[in-house]
Amino acid sequence: MKKIVGFAFIALGIFLEVMWLGFCFGSVIVGILLLVFAPRILFFPFNFFLLVGLRIMYAEAFRNFEKASGRSYSYTYHGGYSNTDGPNHSLSHSKSRIEEYYEELESSPSDDFSVIKKNYRRLMKEYHYDSLVSKGLPKEMLAYSEEKTKRLNEAYAAIKELRG
User: Fold this and answer.
1) Are 123 and 105 in contact (CB under 8 A)?
2) 153: containing domain
3) Is position 83 within any domain?
4) Chain mean position to CA 11
5) Is 129 left (phi over 0), alpha (psi -120 to 50) or beta?
6) Are 16 and 45 contacting, i.e. CB atoms less than 8 angstroms apart?
7) Alpha-carbon distance 81 to 125, whole Å?
8) CA gap 154, 89 in Å, rounded
9) Do 67 and 25 share a structural domain?
10) Alpha helices, DSSP H only, in 27-96?
11) pLDDT in 10s for each residue of the chain, 164 residues
């Protein structure tokens, strides 16, 4: 049902785009000026309804993408020189690398290794590039899933090595 509604929105976008282009190029001067100076305005209806349709069709993938990319990225200072700080000074709000690994695997240091392993497998199943490429998702989402997979592998390997 979601795919039908998504395709309906995309079809509506195509229809509105054709109507909008007809309106803009009804006045040739306005159409050419928009095409040259503001193509985003000229193709807005199609782009808007395409994104709405894809969001409806692939709501879960978009939700995961937003959840992961929507978090605030903080820049962590792991050493070196700064104007006000001495050499090898870490900022007080930065997390240790191991804490970041646990967070990446949606776990905590107090969790049993079997829980961490289950979280790792679940996240790999959710974000692995090979499982998402067949769904026809946008390239940005596939690139994100590839990066997420690398981070998950790095985090799991580090925690596994740490725990022996």
Assistant:
1) yes
2) 59-71+95-164
3) no
4) 25
5) alpha
6) yes
7) 41
8) 25
9) no
10) 28-37, 39-42, 44-57, 59-69
11) 878 888 888 888 888 888 877 777 777 777 777 777 777 777 778 788 887 888 888 777 766 666 665 543 333 434 433 344 444 444 333 468 888 888 888 888 888 899 999 999 998 888 887 777 777 778 888 888 888 888 999 989 988 888 87
> Considering the domain boundaries, does residue 88 fall inside one?
no
Do the domain assignments include residue 80?
no
113 within some domain: yes
Which residues have a Cβ under 8 Å from the Cβ of 123 and sit 6 or more positions away?
105, 106, 148, 152
Query: Are 29 and 67 in a shared domain?
Result: no
CA-CA distance, 9 to 14, in Å (whole number)? 9
Distance CA 151, CA 127 (A): 11
* N-terminal to C-terminal alpha carbon distance within the chain: 48
Q: What is the number of domains present in the chain? A: 2
